[in-house]
Structure formats: C-alpha cells, structure tokens
C-alpha cells in the first residue's frame, strides 16, 4: 500500500518512477515475478499519456548521443510495423552507411518493452570497445518528441535470406558460417554475455562476388543476459516465439 501511494504520487514523473522501480528490484531479487507483476500493473499509470508530455525516457536515453535526424540522409524502408520501422540511411559527416531502427514512443506500454531496448544498447556499449568486433556496431542514438532512433552500421544481409536461394544448404557454406560464428559467440561469452536469441535472422553475413561468405556478425541483443561468475542463466524462458 505504501509503495502504491508512492508510485501514485510520482505519476507525472516517469524518470523518478523508473528509479524507484530499479531500487525496488534490488530489494526484491528473491521474488522477481512479484516485482515484474507490480511493475507492469502500473504501466498505464506511468506511460498512458505520460509519453506525450515527457520528452526524455528513463534508462534508454542514458545511451543518448549528441546527434539528430538531420545528421542522416534516409533512404529505403526495409521493414515497417505499427511500433517500429527499419530504414536505410547514410551519415552526413563520414558517408558511412547505416540501418536505423525507429521506435514510436507511444508504443512503449510497459517497462519490459523499454528494458529490452535499453538492454541491447547497454550490451553493445559493453562489447564494442575495439575496432574489430563480431557484432553489428552501434553508431548513434537520438530522439525526437515522438520517436527513438538507433543507428547501426550497415552490414550485408541476414543468414535466413542468404539461405533462401538454396534447396539444400551446401556443406561449404556451413563451414564458412560455423567458424566465424563460433568466434563471435566466444567473444561475447568471454565478456560474460549470452545472446539468448540466436537464429538465422540474427546472424548477419557479408558475401564475396562468388557468393562465398567473407564475414559473420551477430545482431539483436535485446534478450541478451549478463552471466554471473557462477555461469548461471536466468530461469525464465528467453528467445523468439515460434
């Protein structure tokens, strides 16, 4: 009841509520389900309409950089859904090709949805501390009043669509993918990160002129988890449905 009253009093302060809930999580580790249930039960209170009045979102915008849409030239729409679109783009100042994910802020209805995006940004920040990395680098993060933009380096196409042209996957192609994929997983595991959503759609490949695969990188770390020193993983199921 006391916590309920505290959250009610903070209904106009999304950032403050998020901080309070983070504190709550630290004190409720023994009962994660109860924490998640309580957190989501207040999502309407915290986000229904609040996103229209609050420009800065908690957690996610800790990763914000000084960048804006004017720094990019936007091109073809790769994918489009109600809550998210993916667009090809080129960054003005260096001509680097990018893929930009654009989330509508009005689609964020629970902390769980926001935490997935925050989790990916935090994980990429932790992993991309060297020039050559086996994952798609994060380029920029910025926001408008309505949308959140995350720009990634453009890199080849996913393994799922690469394999579509084959009725049977050639052994040579399997060998070309397997070794760099193991290297990529070894790299993230060496930083105590488990991907938890490994599938052909999240494995990006770059091909040579003869269609052989030259390099492999991982993408989509929304469900990734940091593994403790005891190497235990969260008990709740993770990964894509279907």
TrEMBL record:
The lineage, from the top, is: Eukaryota, Sar, Stramenopiles, Ochrophyta, Dictyochophyceae
Q: Per its record, how is this protein called by name?
A: Protein kinase domain-containing protein
Q: Name one GO molecular function term.
A: ATP binding
Q: Which PROSITE patterns match?
A: PROTEIN_KINASE_DOM, PROTEIN_KINASE_ST
Q: Which Pfam families match?
A: Pkinase
Protein kinase domain: residues covered: 72-242
Give the superkingdom in one word. Eukaryota
Record-annotated membrane-spanning stretches: none
* InterPro entries associated with the record: Kinase-like_dom_sf, Prot_kinase_dom, Ser/Thr_kinase_AS
